[in-house]
Amino acid sequence: MEDVRGKTVLVVDDEPNVRMYLQTVLEDAGLDVQTAANGHQALDRMTEKKPDVISLDLVMPKMSGLNFFKYIQKNKDRAGIPVVVVTAHARDELGSEDFEQIERFKSDECRIFTLEKPVDAPTYVNTIRQALELEPLAAESEEGTSLRVEVTDAIRGADQETLKKALKILKDG
């Protein structure tokens, strides 16, 4: 599996719970994440650090996802950043027109990927990996997912000495 360390995703979504969910999913996958609630904030974040991928909601206040996208396409340094559009409005009156417009930008030079909300974590992470030109992660079995959740819960409740013992066991194989 290729390493994602050092890769940054800018998550732009006006819904705080969605933004937090997407951020958590990406951080759990080993990516660095910046967040913004609208296009204006996203532009500010991009001046702080240029992201490797942008995860973009289309329907947002202040500056829509489409207007943000068009704005960054005018800048030579930003135009090549892959964009993963994550929207709940691809097929309704709020966002279908914007969705169709952004789809028309797709080309070899303008890499755009689209997902419709709600989006599950493995699909989202693998789409981000695709945008980064990395291989997708293998799907984890339901049993593996359940076991991972159980271990994570146990770690959260463990004391420091138990964590040290568990880490030693994991390292020793």
Structural class: alpha/beta
Radius of gyration: 18 Å
Which series of helices and strands comes N to C?
Answer: EHEHEHHEHEHHH
Q: What is the strand tally? A: 5
Question: How many helical stretches?
Answer: 8
Fraction of residues in β-strands: 5-15%
Largest sheet: 5 strands, parallel
First-last Cα distance: 19 Å
| Low-confidence sequence ranges | none
Global geometry: elongated
The averaged pLDDT comes out at: 82
- Helix fraction by DSSP (H/I, runs of at least 4): 40-55%
Read across the widest sheet, the strand sequence of neighbours is 2-1-3-4-5
Structure write-up:
Helix content is 49%, strand content 14%. Strands 2-1-3-4-5 form a 5-stranded parallel sheet, with helices on both faces. Helix 2 runs parallel beside helix 3. The chain is of the alpha/beta class.
Task: List the defining traits of the structure above.
alpha/beta; five-stranded parallel β-sheet; 8 helices; 5 strands; elongated
Can you give me a brief rundown of this structure?
With 173 residues, this protein is an alpha/beta fold.
Task: Write the SSE topology.
Elements: E1 8-12, H1 16-28, E2 32-36, H2 39-48, E3 53-56, H3 65-73, H4 76-79, E4 83-87, H5 96-103, E5 112-116, H6 121-131, H7 142-157, H8 160-172
Parallel strand pairs: 1-2, 1-3, 3-4, 4-5
Helix pairs in contact: 2-3
